[in-house]
Amino acid sequence: MTASHSFRVLLDNSTVLRRVRELAASIGRDFPAESPVGVIVIDGARMFARHLQRHLGKAMEWHEIRASSYGTGTTSSGSVQVGSQGDLCVAGRSVLLVEDIVDTGRTIAALRERFLAQGAKEVRVATLLSKPSRRVVEVELEYVGFEIPDEFVIGFGMDYAGRYRELEEVVVYEESRAAAGEA
Length: 183
Ligand code: PRP
Known about the structure:
Layout: E1 2-11, H1 13-30, E2 37-42, H2 46-56, E3 62-70, E4 76-82, E5 94-102, H3 106-117, E6 122-130, E7 143-147, E8 153-154, E9 170-178
Parallel strand pairs: 2-3, 2-5, 5-6, 6-7
Antiparallel strand pairs: 1-9, 3-4, 8-9
């Protein structure tokens, strides 16, 4: 048996960028006075956040936090590991969590709970993608770029075993196994 894979573009770059602009406009309208503190869930959300930041156009305070629920494969391991939050202090503040994708909902649920426990006034979520059919934990998502079916996607910041994050489109990664020598 030999493993092979193929890529299929799900969302092209201009479609994604147009939607990011719309999300930034909604966020800007919802926070007319005091900007929230932005928390980027790395690594996956970095590219989405970079484009969001460009359009938000305010002198927002940004931090990064690492949260991992996937191993090197394409399925969630079920446990969420949250890294150091550095000098981020959320007490009394509105938090905007920026994610690339919400799948089971565990990562966002864990981060929201963490920041609310630290005294955040509110925690809102901006995610480029959401897979509602995969949800294990019910989470409220205030700003969703696209709802997508249960397919493994890479590109625009998302990886497969650390690769393909730099792709400008959101691409479905399809892995198939074929017998060696099969036509
Ligand atoms: C992905 C994604 C979210 C999480 C979503 O991160 O960036 O943080 O999984 O899954 P969930 O809703 O089931 O919790 P990943 O662990 O792949 O790390 P990465 O961002 O560094 O690629």
